[in-house]
Amino acid sequence: MRVGIIGAGSIGLLFAACLSRVFNVTVYTRTSEQAAAINKNGIVLLSGSEETVSKVEALPITDWEGLEDLTIIAVKQYQLVPIIERINQFTDKPCNLLFLQNGMGHLKLLEQLKVNNLFVGSVEHGALKENLFTVRLNGLGTTNVAVFRGDSRFLFSFTAAVSRVFPMNYQEEYFTMLEKKLIANAMINPLTAILQVKNGVLVENPFYFKLFQNLFSEITTILNLRKPEEYWAQVINICKKTADNHSSMLKDLEAKRLTEVDAILGYILQEAQRQDKKSPQLEMLYYLIKGKEKQVEVLK
Amino acid sequence: MRVGIIGAGSIGLLFAACLSRVFNVTVYTRTSEQAAAINKNGIVLLSGSEETVSKVEALPITDWEGLEDLTIIAVKQYQLVPIIERINQFTDKPCNLLFLQNGMGHLKLLEQLKVNNLFVGSVEHGALKENLFTVRLNGLGTTNVAVFRGDSRFLFSFTAAVSRVFPMNYQEEYFTMLEKKLIANAMINPLTAILQVKNGVLVENPFYFKLFQNLFSEITTILNLRKPEEYWAQVINICKKTADNHSSMLKDLEAKRLTEVDAILGYILQEAQRQDKKSPQLEMLYYLIKGKEKQVEVLK
């Protein structure tokens, strides 16, 4: 089976390295410079003191033609638009696509795709790209995948095959799966990025914990969560399990990159607006992060 | 005329240095070490490239007996309680007291005082204590003073005498005077401390400015401001005039000190509670700062 991976950031490199153990993988990069680096060096995966090198074919994204049995799209949500356009040029071929973006804002974009089999996934690994062809796995989590539209059999057997080398769980229902991840991201990412603290501090510091409860209450109301205690337990669990990690949003700001705040808070803010509900805390977090992005941009 | 100044932080030292040009000043310090340092070196006032040294008598606070014609209390609000107790031991003598705390939470404490003439002031100078006897004046602003209880004639003539050497304005109405300062502090201090930015950034960065407007709207509702546009204009004006300054709350956190967040946000939060109004943004800021204080405390 042939697998294409669009995007060679931390998640793209991690998936390419791991999936190449069972599949024939081609990774598609934004720059030809990165494709050349991967073709020359392979993908280096660091995990603890272990280092493995995987030979993986790399091509610039402009060479993608949807020829693989499955294409995994591992770019940030704000980079999706040109990729969706490219995909729509090749929809005469049968195509299986798996989208790994954070948040839920990209679901609307997926509706535009003419492809039959669309899958979505939520990644819970801690990975950090160290250079064009090297990725460090800081925390082995799992990837949850579900059908967004189309046939489930392909995804089911793919997940079974992957699970032999890399944790991946097939989920029956995409909406709850993405919503749970979204809420965890909305709770943890902006606060850790603003406060410049590790994830664990949010539950260890009694004042941040109080703030955390207030914020969760606002999100619960906006998203009409039916069993909020389950979502709450998951958020607390993630904070504790990743206590020593820097969230992706904190890392983005540290590296002077754009964050995924629009993907993560934008969706909930739009929901609030649609239902004419107030969202003062989320708005405050949103503007704090957008302001920080602006400051970082000015510094560049 | 004899003037006592309780507290030798940045504001206490600044007032002692300036008022000693026209009055006989005694400064009362928390530690006898600081009193000794001031008696030995005088108070050094730095302003731009200028340096002036004022010979001022210093005594430990335990020596204060209310013998001066006026005592200025220049400690932080959270340090007031033991001082109020000490003052109440000496209320057999006629006593004029001027309190220079930020916020409005201390007004309740002042009601406990048996003294007749109570004045309050709000200081708009930018001053930084550099060591036990040295203070740097970063921005010459003014001090507004008003009668809280008692006779206005003393304060009026005192203000006139001071004005010859140091900007000081007599105000007719203490409540609005303190409220204006409180609102400016509530808007500027927590945000600059959380974001670690200079005051000017809050109005220059379009996202922080949007946040600023939302926050002001919440404060307006809680405090039932009748002419909000006047308060808003003042806040913006302060941000622009002190664009390059670090707010006192930012400086407190940088120096790993407690902040005045209870004095500044506590009063407005209590007002919200009393009127059963929501205060989600102020609460978020409050817990962010309290959490930061806790982090700083842990580091010490």
Automatic annotation (TrEMBL), chains A, B:
**Domain named Ketopantoate reductase N-terminal: which ranges?**
3-148
Assigned keywords, A-Z = NADP, Oxidoreductase, Pantothenate biosynthesis
Q: Which GO terms describe its biological process?
A: pantothenate biosynthetic process
Q: Using the record's annotation, list all stretches that form the Ketopantoate reductase C-terminal domain.
A: 179-293
A cellular component term, taken from the record's GO annotations? cytoplasm
Gene Ontology molecular function: 2-dehydropantoate 2-reductase activity; NADP binding
Stored InterPro entries:
6-PGluconate_DH-like_C_sf, 6PGD_dom2, ApbA, Ketopantoate_reductase, KPA_reductase, KPR_N, NAD(P)-bd_dom_sf
SUPFAM superfamilies noted in UniProt: 6-phosphogluconate dehydrogenase C-terminal domain-like, NAD(P)-binding Rossmann-fold domains
Q: Which Pfam families match?
A: ApbA, ApbA_C
This protein's pathway reads: Cofactor biosynthesis; (R)-pantothenate biosynthesis; (R)-pantoate from 3-methyl-2-oxobutanoate: step 2/2
The reactions it catalyses are: (R)-pantoate + NADP(+) = 2-dehydropantoate + NADPH + H(+)
Which EC numbers does the record give?
A: 1.1.1.169
Function summary: Catalyzes the NADPH-dependent reduction of ketopantoate into pantoic acid.
NCBIfam families, per database record = apbA_panE (TIGR00745), PRK06522.2-4 (NF005093)
* Similarity remark: Belongs to the ketopantoate reductase family.
The protein here is known as 2-dehydropantoate 2-reductase
